[in-house]
């Protein structure tokens, strides 16, 4: 299953980008052994509309335009479900084993995701009730994808 990340906003050079890149590289190397291929990160600029709802619709439409039929969608949103790493690995493994060919994990803009897009998602995932800066969310997502690959492969990186 090809896994890609869709992010509203650009990641600037610096320590956060270096750390995120490190985890995405680890995932890219460890994922193929368990049927997960890292397809990269797509960045889009934040919407320029006046209202938050219009920005959400604009950003959501640009994400929707990139989704191929049958692609699984996981949205990162503070209002989503808080899962353990094991549960996230199980969910991604079920999507893979269920025949899904692609998965997009989407990091929204400052206003969050468009409600119709949340309704369409296979999972709305939260990294906790706190609001996290975009750069840190990308680091945490990269680390969790790497952790998912290690859990699915039985590697001792994840100890619970």
What's this model, at a glance?
The chain is built from five helices and five strands, in the order E-H-E-H-E-H-E-H-E-H. The chain is α/β, with parallel strands linked by helices and 160 residues long.
Describe this structure in words.
With 160 residues, this protein is α/β, with parallel strands linked by helices. It has one domain (2-153): SPOUT methyltransferase, trefoil knot domain (Alpha/beta knot), CATH 3.40.1280.10. It has helices at residues 15-30, 52-66, 85-97, 115-120, 134-153; strands at 2-8, 37-44, 72-82, 102-107, 123-126. α1 runs parallel beside α5 (134-153) and α3 (85-97) packs across α5 (134-153). The chain is globular. The two termini are 26 Å apart.
Largest sheet: spatial strand order: 2-1-4-3-5
- Give the CA-based shape: globular
Examine the coordinates and then state which fold CATH places here, giving the name of the CATH topology: Alpha/beta knot
CATH architecture: 3-Layer(aba) Sandwich
Can you give the helix content as a percent range? 40-55%
What is the rounded Rg?
Answer: 15 Å
Write down the secondary-structure element order: EHEHEHEHEH
What structural category characterises the helix and strand content?
alpha/beta
The biggest beta sheet reads: 5 strands, parallel
Distance between the termini: 26 Å
Number of strands: 5
CATH class: Alpha Beta
The tally of structural domains comes to 1
Key terms for this structure?
160 residues, alpha/beta, Alpha/beta knot, 44% helix, globular
């Amino acid at each position: 299953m090809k896994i890609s990340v869709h992010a509203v906003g650009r990641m600037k050079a610096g320590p956060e980008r270096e750390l995120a890149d490190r985890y995405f590289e680890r995932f890219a190397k460890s994922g193929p052994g368990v049927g997960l291929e890292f397809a990269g990160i797509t960045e889009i600029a934040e919407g320029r509309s006046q209202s938050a709802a219009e920005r959400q619709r604009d950003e959501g439409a640009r994400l929707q335009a990139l989704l191929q039929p049958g692609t699984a969608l996981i949205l990162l949103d503070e209002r989503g479900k808080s899962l353990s790493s094991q549960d996230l690995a199980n969910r991604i493994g079920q999507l893979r084993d269920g025949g899904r060919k692609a998965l997009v994990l989407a990091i929204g803009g400052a206003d969050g995701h468009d409600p119709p897009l949340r309704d369409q998602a296979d999972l709305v995932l939260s990294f906790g009730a706190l609001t996290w800066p975009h750069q840190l969310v990308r680091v945490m997502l990269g680390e969790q994808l790497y952790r998912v690959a290690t859990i699915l492969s039985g590697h001792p990186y994840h100890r619970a």
